[in-house]
């Protein structure tokens, strides 16, 4: 999943791990990975399937506090 | 060139010519205990052989504790793609198939220092004020 890696390049607070699910079955089980790609954000939020850039970034902002409050408050 | 075919190698060599700054592939492994440990290391070394701007460093997950801590690696095989600075980009497992394309993409992005994201996305990401850990689960096909 390229977008996650590109996000990491933009902000040094973002760490992006691409995990080969079949090689780490315990981890895939823990996060209930039944379909790929599955994206887990800070252990608490997750979604399945490839999202376009603008929706993916909103998922990230929803999951973590941002400097200007929730993403919804943005113009 | 063990794992990359000749034709693929030629294409990858061409693609890597577009690199700007050098990129280091920092690889952590326990080669003998992993199903694809040897393949993962060899694949990275094969890629590095295709460009003088790509280098590979290999560390032992059990013995090189300092490096393991520095890179925050908690499982192997792990590969960090970086230039002078930490990039926040890691691959866990053998980066084969679809993931291989992603690895090349990560190398190019890190080398150019450009995410290629839209200005609005960059703006939103700049608002992130706390550590974010994205774990993307994939399969090779």
The CATH homologous superfamily of chain A corresponds to Glutaredoxin
Number of DSSP E strands of chain A = 3
* Cα distance spanning the termini of chain A: 28 Å
Range of strand content of chain A: 15-25%
Number of strands of chain B: 5
Structural class of chain B: alpha+beta
According to CATH, the fold-level topology of chain B is Glutaredoxin
Largest sheet of chain A: 2 strands, antiparallel
Assembly form of the protein:
heterodimer
Strand neighbour order, sheet with most strands of chain A: 2-3
Q: Calculate the mean pLDDT score of chain A and round it.
A: 89
Structure characterization notes:
The complex is a heterodimer of chains A (75) and B (141). Chain A contains three helices and three strands. Chain A has helices spanning 2-10, 25-30, 53-63, and strands at residues 14-20, 38-41, 45-48. The mean pLDDT of chain A is 89. Chain B has one domain: 3-Layer(aba) Sandwich (Glutaredoxin). Chain B has helices at residues 6-16, 37-48, 65-71, 98-112, 119-126, and strands at 23-29, 54-60, 78-82, 89-92, 132-138. The longest helix of chain B is centred in the last third of the chain and has 15 residues, at 98-112. In chain B, strands 2-1-3-4 form a four-stranded mixed β-sheet, with helices on both faces. Chain B is of the alpha+beta class and 141 residues long. Classes of the chains: A alpha+beta (75), B alpha+beta (141). Strand 2 (38-41) of chain A pairs antiparallel with strand 5 (132-138) of chain B.
